[in-house]
Amino acid sequence: MNSGIRPCPKGVKPGRIKPKRLKDPAHLMLIRQLPCLVCGTTHGIEVHHLLRGTVRGWGLKAKDSEVLPLCFIHHTQSDDCAHDNKCGGETEWFKSKGIINPLYIARKLYENTGDYGKMLSIINTARE
Ligand SMILES: [Zn+2]
Ligand SMILES: [Zn+2]
């Protein structure tokens, strides 16, 4: 008969140390409602996490506070997108699209998270 006794936990193993990453699903949801930073479309918006500097490797994605709205074309689905480009990197790619300081814009958006109107105007100003 099953006595219902649960196995005794054998000491808690320290989990794998994950890189610190700020998670903010509410902010990501708002980002998806903004127009693409590059072309201004509101169709098929995805969240792009800025990859900073020369950091390489797995698990080093940027924080949810450092994200930008990009349509799927400008995000991943073309030869000239944030994740696949011939500009030599994300920062250069943004520059080629007239976005000089993507990290600054991302931080501004996060500062104003929850205020959709303000967020929208940050995107519109950046695209001017
Ligand atoms: Zn776009
Ligand atoms: Zn991305």
Give an account of the 3D structure.
This protein is 30% helix and 8% strand. It is α+β, with helices and mostly antiparallel strands. It has a two-stranded antiparallel ribbon with strand order 1-2. Helix 4 runs antiparallel to helix 5. The chain is globular. The model has no long low-confidence stretch (mean pLDDT 85). The protein binds zinc ion (2 copies). The site of one zinc ion (ZN) has 5 residues, from strand 1.
Give a brief outline of the structure.
This protein has 128 residues and is α+β, with helices and mostly antiparallel strands. The chain has helices at residues 25-31, 72-75, 90-96, 102-111, 116-126, and strands at residues 45-49, 67-71. The protein has a two-stranded antiparallel ribbon with strand order 1-2.
